[in-house]
Amino acid sequence: MYNSVKLMPFGESAMIVEFGNTISPDINRKVHALHNAVIYNRPVGVGECVPTYRSLLVTYDPAELSFEELASLVRDLEKKAEKTASQMKPRKAVIPVVYGGDFGPDLSAVSQHHNLGERQVVEIHSEAEYTVYMIGFIAGFPYLGELSDQIATPRLQTPRLRVPAGSVGIAERQTGIYPREAPGGWRIIGRTPIKLFDPTWQPPALLQPSDLVKFKPIGIPEYEEISEAVSRGVYDPFIQDR
Asked: For the chain, what are the domain ranges?
């Protein structure tokens, strides 16, 4: 983490605000705290804000705002956001998953890649608690990290044309969940019946940056029960603090 944020021009109408050169929950919390502050205050001339693992892209209209003026605004908002970031309490979700078989066609390849049993891969994957670092490459897709080196596995050399909705995958030291059917090259080790995206929701993505996620191994009968509850809108994966 840098002692102070780095502000860098990105073309003639955008700024990159970089908090560090590593991936960490603390840095990512700062990114999203600033993102929320910019969106909430929406200074005149500021356009879209795009958060990543460790930086924030802020677009602006040079006719309304100079780079130097935007830099001053961002530094002021960053100081306010620092307090917010330290007070943020992440939500916690438990995502049920059927591992292996037709639901996880790459589980065997992952286990062989690491000379582990399939059950060991499942245990390592489901024992960890993951941070939602950002939402990408399709609507509602959560990038979760960081995955244990014990099961970190490269993407497929040739991506699949169709990956089913709910598929749980591995790509290097990341794990993620496909919210809908889409092409993809992640190693698919399981599938969840949880619905991750609905354009009628507000916000439309179930998981949000800074949420914490834990996976729970289940069998097919429980998968079907949860799937039915999800279809009726009565399943809540979030853990309520008491």
From this structure: 6-87, 92-239
* pLDDT tens figures, 171-227: 999 999 999 999 999 999 999 999 999 999 988 999 988 899 999 999 999 999 999
User: CA 224 to CA 235: how far, in whole Å?
Assistant: 12
Answer for the pair 22, 133: CB distance below 8 angstroms, yes or no: no
CA distance 78 to 67: 16
The strand pairing partners of 174, in sequence order, are 171
- Identify residue 212 by its one-letter amino acid code: L
Q: Do domains 6-87 and 92-239 have the same CATH topology?
A: no
145 phi/psi in degrees, rounded to 5:
-155, 175
> What is the value of pTM for the model shown?
0.84
Question: Nearest Cα to 25, choosing from 136, 172, 133, 155?
Answer: 133
Please tell me the class of the 92-239 domain.
mainly beta
